[in-house]
Amino acid sequence: MVTNESFFAEQREQSEVKASIVAKYFDAWSNVMLGVKRRFGTIDRLAYVDLFAGPGRYRDGTKSTPLLVLETAIAKPELAGVLVTMFNDRDEDNVSSLKTEIEALPGIDQLRHPPRIVCSEVGDEAKAMLAAAQRCPTFTFVDPFGYKGLSRGIIQSIIGDWGCDCVVFFNYARINAGLNNDAVRPHMDALFGGDRVDAMREAMIAMKPHEREAYVLENLAQALKTLGAKFVLPFKFRRADGSRTSHSLVFVTKDEKGYEIMKDIMARESSTEDQGVASFAYSPADARCPLLFSLARPLDALADLLASTYAGRTTTMADIYRGHHIDTPYVSKNYKHALLELEAAGRVRCDPPADKRRKHAGKPTFADSVVVAFPKAA
User: Fold this and answer.
1) How far apart are CA 216 and CA 20, in angstroms?
2) Is the pTM of this model over 0.90?
3) Mean pLDDT value across residues 106-116
4) What is the predicted pLDDT for the residue at 304?
5) Cα(101)–Cα(264) distance, integer angstroms
6) Rounded-to-integer distance, Cα 31 and Cα 34, Å
């Protein structure tokens, strides 16, 4: 059994990827928010909240998410002047360690608002803390060790206002076991809703393990969307042998731009890809042996799907991407590659045509403005 203490004893590969995804999104999110501030002058503060912050470093000395976020703020004077941060952990030793690590950060005094560090259980009081911290665009990271404190109410309070995004580290292995455990039923009801848990229990009886995994994540996404989360994007972490999912990092936002940014980040952090299409998963086994990844040829499937979906229509690459990529594993470059293949095969006509467009590495480029004409279905 892995304990909360031993979890921080060393930084596993998965934890490094998790921290990288959160820190990179915070950097991109804050840049977007600062751009809005400069253009419209309607933002006077930004906030970052971590409800399960930990001690700040793993025992091997590697920085965890709070320190990476603060270093990003220190490096950007404009952000340092407006960022409000709040870090919470229920463990007093973790809180003490985090305070020491934050105070030792070079340049920490450049932050206009000193970080607020709190020691409490995540529950109703966390909702009050979030309400106080928000009233401004807020990015929140929720990384519970198990499932206690993780609820739809907490997530709803996190994403309630404009510019408020959330990442949840979802312990799939423990929640999968907890769904049929009456002793932890209140925690499952808080996360999924009682009626949904009843339906899930019944449906999962005859499911195989890989079917249960997809079903649980789908129900989590649907439960979050009922709270107003328009876009939900999961990133899976496999066990060391690559056999099953242990955790998922679940991104929640109401804004398509945020969804697009995080999708690109998660795609780059994936341990494998097939035909340039990311797996949206990290597996130590895949990272060591990337050639063992399945040959599903998802780019071929995308080309065929676009030919069918857009049959008889003429539209731009940008409109194709925006109208199609939600809830798929495909990013912009995948659409461009698929359309290039369709063009080379004579299955679509493009304006300007390939011989009139710039070339990169000997191949024609595919700008967002290229107009694509799909023939009518036969």
Assistant:
1) 25
2) no
3) 96
4) 94
5) 31
6) 5
